[in-house]
Specification:
alpha+beta; disordered C terminus; disordered N terminus
Length: about 450
């Protein structure tokens, strides 16, 4: 009975978990500080999750002392804030011959392509529904080390709500005579505000190829994913930011980033002080403290819901001068391969450009059987012919030696090619118009292409 009596007087103070509660939301909110104009000035509120934020961003500080205090991998600033590090798709430049894994920017382009609504579905035999998204990149003025565009300040201005609430609860605690709660809320406001300002002072830039080689062919190519394909069309200088570019955070004090380490240490001190001392505050002071955390957590959750990758896509599209996009649905892999081949063939504007439709077809349909070899040979022959009307039919001599099942399959595949060709011809005018518009401003950049005309 005595043991029960002792336990019944124990009061578990939940305010002690303030440093852990809302940590993920606080990290997501801090990661947006470089994406919104003026956001670095608006961190002056008592934010929860200080311990989690300190552990996450303290890893940026690079020295024996900081590595011991905040163990973990020393990521680059861009990687730590989710602005780099996502593996991109494979990029193949059909005219330049470039074949390489792309990076974070190309990953964002693929994400944008996934958001584009399918404008046209090309009919035919359905096996596996696929899509082809065409991105026509015009004259991009973005250069190496140019600052990235930022979102408007209106979302960030909502920070006035937790700022006002934190200051109000701090003042009410002081007015009630609870100077301990007053001090702890004030410590939270200062540590959060200072950390947001220091971290947000970094400059977000694009890094890409400084100057492509003169006379390079168009960088038309494909970004390859498991099922869908993104075709990027444009000059080398305009496609380089997609295939070879990345976001870079220019943060002062590198490579040790002592200021980031000091901010993380300040957040850690805030966590320990609030953990140990808030139970000593009055009930009213504790309520004020928890109220300020609740409002701040709601604001951090709002920033987290904005999806950082979607914001990055918007900024990227703005930097690329809002390129034209078109999305087509195909019913089979064979139809998709032929459609891609037709779209890329439109980039052949001078005899010096080396375009090999067979290589394109082999890239997407690499099956090494007699039926597929015959199909590829027939499709390439028709695409390279000057006939106005393409015939995707084989005569009886071409079918000699094939079994009945092989003949059925070959005819079905050739019908897929015909459906893709017809579907492309129905929309070729718009695609060529989009292509023509994107190249109008390139005439002075690439003199070889001054005689481009809309076909």
């Amino acid at each position: 009975m005595s043991a029960f009596s002792v336990q019944s007087h124990i009061s578990l103070d939940t305010s002690g978990v303030a440093g852990f509660f809302g940590g993920d939301e606080a990290i997501s909110a801090m990661a947006t500080v470089h994406l919104y104009r003026g956001r670095r000035w608006l961190g002056w509120y008592n934010s929860p999750g200080s311990y989690t934020v300190a552990k996450k961003f303290g890893q940026l500080a690079n020295s024996r002392f900081w590595d011991g205090l905040f163990p973990g991998p020393n990521l680059t600033p861009a990687e730590a804030f989710g602005l780099d590090g996502k593996p991109g798709p494979r990029y193949w430049g059909v005219f330049s011959g470039t074949d390489m894994p792309a990076g974070h920017i190309a990953y964002l382009v693929v994400q944008k392509a996934g958001e584009v609504k399918e404008q046209v579905k090309i009919g035919g035999r359905e096996t596996t529904p696929l899509s082809v998204t065409i991105v026509d990149v015009g004259d991009v003025t973005l250069k190496h080390s140019d600052p990235a565009p930022m979102m408007s300040i209106h979302h960030a201005l909502l920070a006035t709500i937790p700022i006002t609430f934190s200051l109000a609860t701090c003042a009410l605690s002081g007015a009630s005579g609870d100077w301990l709660a007053f001090s702890l809320i004030l410590i939270g406001i200062i540590s959060s505000g200072v950390s947001c300002f220091v971290i947000g002072s970094a400059r977000l830039e694009f890094a890409s190829v400084k100057q492509p080689a003169p006379g390079t062919p168009p960088a038309d190519g494909v970004l390859l994913t498991r099922s869908d394909v993104v075709i990027v069309r444009g000059a080398e200088k305009d496609i380089n930011p997609i295939t070879k570019g990345k976001f870079v955070l220019k943060m002062g004090g590198g490579p040790e980033y002592r200021r980031i380490g000091c901010c993380s240490l300040l957040l850690l001190i805030q966590f320990l002080a609030q953990l140990l001392l808030i139970p000593q505050a009055t009930t009213f002071g504790q309520l004020m403290f928890l109220s300020s955390l609740a409002v701040s957590w709601a604001y951090n959750s709002f920033l987290s819901s904005l999806e950082q990758e979607r914001i990055q896509v918007k900024l990227l599209w703005k930097a690329l001068a809002n390129p034209q996009t078109s999305k087509f649905g195909l019913m089979s892999r064979a139809a998709q391969a032929v459609f891609i081949c037709l779209v890329l063939r439109d980039g052949v504007r001078t005899p010096s450009i080396d375009f090999k439709p067979m290589k394109v077809l082999q890239c997407f349909v690499s099956n090494d059987t007699r039926v597929w070899h015959t199909w590829r040979d027939k499709v390439v022959k028709e695409l390279e012919s000057n006939k106005r009307v393409k015939s995707f039919e084989l005569d009886s001599t071409d079918l000699q030696g094939f079994g009945d099942d092989e003949k059925v399959l070959l005819k079905a595949l050739l019908q897929d090619a015909r459906n893709a060709y017809i579907g492309y011809q129905e929309h070729a005018g718009k695609l060529r118009h989009d292509r023509h518009d994107s190249l109008l401003t390139e005439k002075q950049v690439h003199p070889d292409y001054n005689d481009i005309k809309s076909v």
